[in-house]
Predict the 3D structure of the following.
Amino acid sequence: MDTNIVIIGAGVVGLAIAQELSKWFDDVFLMEKNATFGQETSSRNSEVIHSGIYYPQGSLKATLCVEGKELLYNYCQQKQIAHKKIGKLIVSTNASEDRILQAILRQAQNNNVTDAQLLTMKEIKQLEPHINATSALYFPSTGIVDSFGLMKQLENDAINQGVQVLYKKEITAIRKITNGYELTVSENNERFSFTASVVINAGGLYADKIAAMVGIYEPSYTLHYWKGEYFSVTNGKHKLINHLIYPIPHQNNTGLGIHATLDINHRLKLGPNALYLPTHTLDYSVDKAHGESFYNAAKKFLPFIEFDDLQADQAGIRPKLQKPGDAVRDFII
Ligand SMILES: Cc1cc2nc3c(=O)[nH]c(=O)nc-3n(C[C@H](O)[C@H](O)[C@H](O)COP(=O)(O)OP(=O)(O)OC[C@H]3O[C@@H](n4cnc5c(N)ncnc54)[C@H](O)[C@@H]3O)c2cc1C
């Protein structure tokens, strides 16, 4: 074989795999079609270090989120990557939502999220004097991270441990051969092939297409694209909250509801929404007309927000195994 291990895709997942595997194995290649790392979903998200609250008990999503949170905090601390355990509130604004909060608390406890606290109105006012809520669940260990800084550090570590990180290399075909794979790579309209013993698919939005290249074609593995738009909140309103503030999540599993996120520089954004992209295209536009629905959603728990505070910001696309109306699906690794 020309090489031992090839990882396809330099998003945060491919970079983390490269960083970890290169501690144990030689001859690791990371190949990315874009000119640098993290140009797709990994740089178009909320940068939240989640607690693992909502996922079904025993699912990979729940288990890996709880375990991964601690690993990520340790890595950030050890490598001095900007991050903050800022804490998260899920707020209810009426009696029927209060009952859903109780169910979320039970779900969190079932998933071994041990820091959840149900707050009274008085306690909420102490933490967040400017929000509207009848009760709230508080998760002190939820945090935020500088996603660029995290990916840069993972890339540095991987390179220092011997990984060959190659950009502008798109894998266009993979053929199973005895004891490995033959991969075809496209670079500036030129093609070349090489062989590897192990191929790791970290292709994000294209992971199903990459799997199909080796003949892993299973209709239930088809990825569905769900766009999430953000609106930033201007006029100094970022000073009025100190935590991530979430409403009760959608009951149809399409998203967590329009919430208020703060980044590492304390910039305040609302979002993301969840728009199904039936065309399977990379559409990162933000429709300014959606500002009104963001305003109406956020106003319920952030009464200080005015419509004129909102400005269209970025969008990202979640690859999901479910299309509209489907039940929540777990990771398949
Ligand atoms: C709106 C939104 C908000 C989110 N918020 C959060 C959050 O707060 N916290 C959280 O933990 N997660 C969040 N996520 C999810 C998180 O962003 C993703 O789970 C994560 O970025 C996935 O990383 P990845 O490496 O799998 O994918 P990607 O970042 O998409 O990387 C895949 C890479 O593979 C490359 N690639 C694909 N095909 C090929 C090929 N044939 N050859 C070479 N390279 C190829 C792509 O170019 C890309 O760089 C959010 C996602 C969205 C969309």
The chain has a mean pLDDT of 95. The chain has seven helices and 18 strands. The longest strand covers residues 190-201. Residues 8-14, 31-34, 39-42, 44-48, 50, 170-171, 202-206, 210, 228, 272, 316-318 surround flavin-adenine dinucleotide (CB under 6 Å).
